[in-house]
Design goal:
The structure holds two protein chains of two kinds. By secondary structure, chain A is α/β, with parallel strands linked by helices. Chain A contains ten helices and eight strands. In chain B, 38% of the residues lie in helices and 17% in strands. The chains are: A alpha/beta, B alpha/beta.
Amino acid sequence: MRWPLTRESLPATRAGAGTMFPSNDEVIAGRAVDWEDRVIPGPAGAPDLEVTIFRPRDRGDRALPAIYNIHGGGMIVGHRSWETGRVVDIVDELGVIGVTVEYRLAPEDPFPAGVEDCYAGFVWLAENAPSIGVDPDRIVVMGGSAGGGLSAAVALMARDRRGPRMAGQGLLCPMLDNTNTTISSLQYDGVGTWQREANLLAWECVLGDRLAVSADAPEYAAPARATDLSGLPSAYIEVGAAEMFRDEDVEYATRIWATGGQAELHVWAGGAHGFDMYMPEAGISRAAIAARLSWLRRTLGA
Amino acid sequence: MSAASDPVPYDPELVDGLQAFLDLVEIVPLRADTIQVNRDHFATIIPSMAVQAEGRAVTWEERVIPGPGGAPDVEVTIVRPVAASASAPGVLSIHGGGMVLGTRYFATGELIELAERFGAVGVAVEYRLAPEHPAPAQAEDCYAALVWMADHAHELGIDASRIIVSGASAGGGLSAAVALMARDRGGPRLAGQLLNAPMLDDRNETTSARQYDGIGAWDRNNNDTAWDAVLGADRFTDAASPYAAPARAADLSGLPPAFIEVGAAETFRDEAVAYATRIWATGGQAELHVWSGGYHGFSGSSPEAEVSRAANAARDSWLRRIIGSRE
């Protein structure tokens, strides 16, 4: 990320990032994974959405589990190609189908544009599961950082709207709490890979100045605002011990358990925000990825 | 505190293992008048050291070491890898059993594993049990063993800069207590504290304690009995020693790196999460794992389940980072 991240630097950051990330074929690097881009209907009255579907090759006619991945970037930067590496690794390792979604970013498209796009993509995947070889009972919605927060929001929406069944929600260092009042949000002010200043900017872009850090913010923007966390799909919540989102993520898991809901929580010693992406060879990164794959196996039967 | 919600459900793959554990271990609910019955039962299910060590790449030795000041000597079992090195990591292993049950041979299985897989030299300590010996006799005995280990590191072939304290359940709580004592007394410098489903808080009032009231392994009622035995009239008061109930410690700064693991479906879930959260708030290092649908002791009692394998792998990862590996 380019520091400091400001409203003025957002366009340049986005443009620069476009060339930072390799193509799908480069990421796949000869592994037995095929991909295709699709355009699917967006939310009512909104533009269509681009998705990319990654499939393990030669898996026969049996319907496969799927992961639906929502990328990070504070809801203000990023592209679905940012997390192709994570998705392809899982597709290749577990033999599941991966779908990545391109959602609208703030501030050009503030809340609820992005999260409604993500929800529309999930509904499309579930409703069209048979035609793309997916078992609709075995879909996990997952993402990192803003993508983790959006995944939590899509799970809330699916519950509240009686939408498609979700087998699990994979929340990797999720961005959940717009108030920025936890101890960890203050400990990582000016240090780390996603800093307090960038987080405040992101919430302002998504929610506008009035609601940016308000306890009245809508829960589909900031899932920590949800008053009821019961009846949600099984959650996987992973975060570094040394990052802003630590305390809000632990709190979210604790509140799910208090309702009798299922959640698995991992807080990795000394982990910076996104440690598995930035430091993939570190001991904690390898251990975190192994734990994540274990949860996906348990949740997807993969 | 509102009424308890439904409990977090168990992982389907753990249900049979939980039942088997209950049928083997918790056949008599632990109450003030069943402590001795439970001790007698435990004595029948803990294998002897000879049986535990048979065919394993370890040697073992019984020793009697000095106890805390004015207290009796303490028995320990030392477990060493067959292929010993001059400076092995050291592990002080503290057994579980609510501080009212069990023997050090509950903790030697872990030491055999760590000797084989990490080349560790381990010490399992026989601490005095409550209610005959109220707190903090348990932690004082454990701490005496740590001091002895550190003082005899050279003789034991231990690298004094790589000593950790480790335990499950009551042993996890006592491991946390030993870490507090070492800090407060300027004692041996620990490389880490491994707290597996630790028993930390005598108040027994968290949401998870209320969720597992009458169900599961080491439910709220068993826990209640144990804390009454350990703390007596001090329980629920500010006189409760943090060396019995580390959740009572006012200051969690300056502690060695902690590894805290617990099941999502057990009494100790919330107190374990709170302990990690308080360590982080001081700027201390802690790794926390709360395993989906895990009952108390699931990873040891249901080792073949996928979630147990993941839990054991995560613990191994931390051990590699903290005390290194010969693998």
